[in-house]
Amino acid sequence: MTSITSTAVVEVEEARRSFGDVLALDGVSLAVEPGEIVGLLGPNGAGKSTLLSLINGQRKPSSGTVRLFGQDPRTPAARIGLGVTPQETGLPASLKVGEVVDFVSGHYPNPMPRAELLERFDLADLAGRQTGGLSGGQKRRLAVALSLAGQPRLVLLDEPTTGLDVEGRRALWGALREYHREGATVIVTSHYLEEIEALAERVVVIGGGRILADDTLPAVISRVQSHRVTFHSDVARDRVAQLPGVTAVDADGDRYSLLTGDSDAFVRELVTSGTTFTGLEVRGASLEEAFLSLTDTDTEVAA
Q1: Closest C-alpha among 196, 206, 195, 199 to residue 181
Q2: 3-class SS at 289?
Q3: What would the CATH number be for the domain defined by 10-223?
Q4: Strand order from edge to edge, sheet including 63-68
Q5: DSSP class of residue 113?
Q6: pTM for this prediction
Q7: CA 214 from chain center: how many Å?
Q8: Which of 10, 32, 54 is nearest to 209 (CA)?
Q9: Nearest CA to 66 among 77, 83, 80, 52?
Q10: How do the pLDDT tens digits run along the chain, 303 residues long?
Q11: H or E segment to which residue 230 belongs
Q12: 120, 128 contact by CB (below 8 A)
C-alpha cells in the first residue's frame, strides 16, 4: 500500500527524523492517494505527530524525501491545499469565534462560507462569543473547524477529539466523514482504536518510529485485538510459543504471560493437550501491548 505514485497526495520515502540522540522516525515510507481517509494508530510517542509535522512542512526529515501534492511541503504552493489541526491549538482569547474564522479564512483564495463552517461543527450559536470564554470541547471543535476553513484537499488531524466527551467526539466524527465524502483526503492520528474505527478505511500502525502495519481497517483490527493470558505451568517455553495464535510469550519461572489473537483456541488447546496449569486468567490486551506484539514478531508489513 505504500508504493509511491505520481498521483499521490502525500509521498514519504525512507524518511528519518532525529531530535538529538532520539530517533523519532526510522525509514518511514508512505503514500496516500486522493480521497483516502487514513488512520495513523499507535501509542503515545510512537512517531505519529512527528510524521505529520514532516507532511505539513513544519519540520523537514533528517534524511529521505517528503512530498505534498508533488512539491516540497514547506512551500506556500503546496500548503495552500492543506488544512491542519495540531494536538494543541492556541486561540486568541479576546477575539470572537466568528472573527477567528474570518481571520483564518482570509488566508485562502476560496474559503468555506463562515455560516456553513460554523454549522458543520455546531458552532453557529457561538459566533459572537470570545474564544477565551469557550469550554475545552468547544475550543477543540473550533480548532478542527478552522482546519477546513480553506476547503483543503488534504486535512491532517492530530488527536482531533482530545478533551471532547463521547457525544462531542461522535458529532465531530460525523462532520469529518461528511467532508471526506465530498472528496477530501484525510489523515488522522489517534491512540484510540475506537476513533480510528469510526473514521478510517485504511490504517497505518506506527510504533518506535517505524510502520508496523499498513492495511485495511478489518485486517489491522484483527492484528491488534489481542488478549493477555497468564497461568502457571512447568511446560517448556517453546511448547507454549507453538500453541495456536500466540504472538508473544514472557516467562518468569513457572509463570507465563502471553498475547494471543484467539484466546478461545489457545485455552482449548491448552486443556486438550493435557498440559498441567493453574491460575489461568484471560483479559483484553491494551493497544500498547498489542503494538508491542507486532514489534516483537516477524509479522511486520513492509512499508
Answers
A1: 199
A2: helix
A3: 3.40.50.300
A4: 22-32, 10-19, 63-68
A5: P
A6: 0.78
A7: 12
A8: 54
A9: 52
A10: 444 445 899 999 999 999 999 999 999 999 999 999 999 988 888 899 999 999 999 999 999 999 999 999 999 999 999 999 988 778 999 999 999 999 999 999 999 999 999 999 999 999 999 999 999 889 999 999 999 999 999 999 999 988 888 888 888 999 999 999 999 999 999 877 788 888 999 999 888 899 988 998 888 777 777 888 999 999 999 989 888 888 889 899 999 999 888 889 999 999 998 889 999 999 887 666 666 666 554 333 322
A11: strand 227-232
A12: no
C-alpha cell at 55: 507532511
Round the CA-based radius of gyration of the chain to a whole number and report it.
Answer: 22
On whether the CB atoms of residues 227 and 210 are closer than 8 A, the answer is no
DSSP 88: S
Reference 172, options 151, 150, 187, 157; nearest CA is 157
Domain-wise residue ranges, the chain: 10-223, 227-284
Cross-strand partners of 62: none
- Contact between 148 and 104 (Cβ < 8 Å): no
Query: Given this chain, do its domains 10-223 and 227-284 carry the same CATH topology?
Result: no
Question: The cell 507465563 sits on which residue?
Answer: 256
Closest CA to 86 of 146, 126, 129: 146
Q: Distance between CA atoms of 121 and 142, rounded to whole angstroms?
A: 7
Fold of 227-284: Alpha-Beta Plaits (3.30.70)
Cell digits of residue 12: 514519504
